[in-house]
Amino acid sequence: MKIVVAEKIAKAAIDLFKQDPTWNVVTPDQVAQKEQLLEQLKGADALIVRSAVFVDAAMLEHADQLRVIGRAGVGVDNIELEAATRKGIAVMNTPGANAIAVAEHTIGLMLALARFIPRATETMHAGKWEKKSLQGTELRGKTLGIVGLGRIGLEVARRAASFGMTLVAHDPYVSPAIAHDAKIRLADRDEVLAVADYITLHVGLTPQTANMINATTLATMKKGVRIVNCARGELIDDAALAEAVKSGHVGGAALDVFTEEPLKASPYHGVPNVILTPHIGGSTAEAQDAVGVQIAHQVRDYLQRGVVQNAVNMPSLTEQEYVALEPFITLGERLGSLLAQLAESRFEEIGIRYTGPLADWKTELIRNASIKGILQHTTDESVNVINANSVAETRGIRVHESKKEHPSSGAAANVLGLTVTTPKGTLSVRGTVLHGNSPRLLSFDNIDVEAPLEGTLLVIRNRDIPGVVGRVGTILGEHEVNIANFALGRPSGNSGGNAIAAVQVDGPLKEPVLQQLRQQKAILAANVVQF
CATH code at 35? Predict the structure, then answer.
């Protein structure tokens, strides 16, 4: 493996990569110039950046083997996600690694607002003693409104509780049990903004959260409310908040993030009771070491085992979730490969159906693995579980998914079904996982036929008449082909029609064997599938 670390990260992170002596770790001093970085990207498996290196489509053209980009930090504005996804490159960040640092900064800003600390130090440096005008208030007994209960929001809540604050929060995605354990009352956002003495924001930027603090919402807040933002600058209408502070309706604001950074011309400049810090919430020595070590662990796990954590261009999984999904990811790819090797025309549409408890899982990786299995036999593009859906879209192939929570009585608990539509018609397969990790075919074109999806599989369509099985066995025996598994199937209650045979054999099947099989009158088609 070749790992290019383009920016300075913790030594412990570098050491983590170097634990495997076969891994080549390129350090920041080796790629100080852009030309050096572009050269080192050739043959690299992973690229680690922070915020200074801009990873655009042009740079990625030099990365012929890159599998993952690790961002030691949260924001990924310096990475062209669409370009990375098209090339099948996973992009990961490290949300939560700096949660303690941001939470402590948030509490520090609240204390600074409550006790007028910036103004106190400013007047003292000016040689003034303005003790009477600097009488503050306590956090104890005040209501803290928290918008967003992710890792940072929960860490803020824990610290605020130790100050004796009452906690009320809004987060539609958090478990009530988690809020209850943290002694937080959940409420809708309007109520949180209306009852709070202090408001702190800890949500990402979405169409629903952009400018959530605006003239209208400010008017509903308590007079004297104090607002802290260490999340995203775009959450606040700056002009409206500055005006509300000037009018005295808002008692103060403390902001660490801004719509445009670095902050230049701003409506906050010169406004009393507005504390501004230059996006330093996560800037502690401990946090910077933590994000480096965390991204090193994530990248190593992805390269070694395929575990996806904190990816921003594909679904992220815990290790436990990945362990449960991995056999079905393999199943999806092999079912897709089976269809691709048997189809004799281009694909127009792919249908994917999940049945059983599987329907409630995070199925995006299974979907992409299924598409990968289908497309990797039909294109010279590099197709993997990152870009498979994107490749299908660019080729004009429609992908449909459906889910059925409860399997039919007596059926396997978890079943994955794939259907491909071509100009010549449709092909469909169903499969499951047995014994924890064994991918198994259950049916082909709605004919029940159970066979292992591994090694070499001979798929035969034949007329359901006597003698076919014996003749197939004889031909394979004459060519010294050993049969490992022989599965037969025909439409239920329909003898004398067409049937399916799935024959697993040892070793490859040569063309003369297939030609002899196809010459048999009862055999309509004989194709080999290699897994």
Answer: 3.40.50.720
Residue 128, CA distances (Å) to 112, 119, 369 in order: 19, 11, 69
Range of 150's domain?
A: 99-276
Q: Tell me: do 82 and 106 sit in the same domain.
A: no
Residue 529 contacts by C-beta under 8 Å, 6 or more apart in sequence?
A: 337, 338, 341, 342, 456, 457, 458, 459
Instruction: Say which of 260, 261, 393, 405 is annotated catalytic.
Output: 261
Domain CATH for 467: 3.30.1330.90
Catalytic residue among 71, 232, 353, 430: 232
Give the integer Cα–Cα distance in Å for 482 and 473. Answer: 9
Which tens digits make up the pLDDT trace of 324-373? 899 999 999 999 999 999 987 788 999 999 999 999 998 999 999 999 99
Catalytic residue of the set 279, 377, 461, 479 = 279
* 141 belongs to a structural domain: yes
Catalytic, 180? Answer no
Do 33 and 53 share a structural domain? yes
Q: Does pTM top 0.70 for this prediction? A: no
pLDDT tens-place string over residues 115-150: 999 999 999 999 999 999 999 999 999 999 999 998
279 is annotated as an active-site residue = yes
Number of domains within the chain: 3
Rounded to an integer, what distance in angstroms lies between the CA atom of residue 73 and that of residue 114? 30
518: in domain? yes
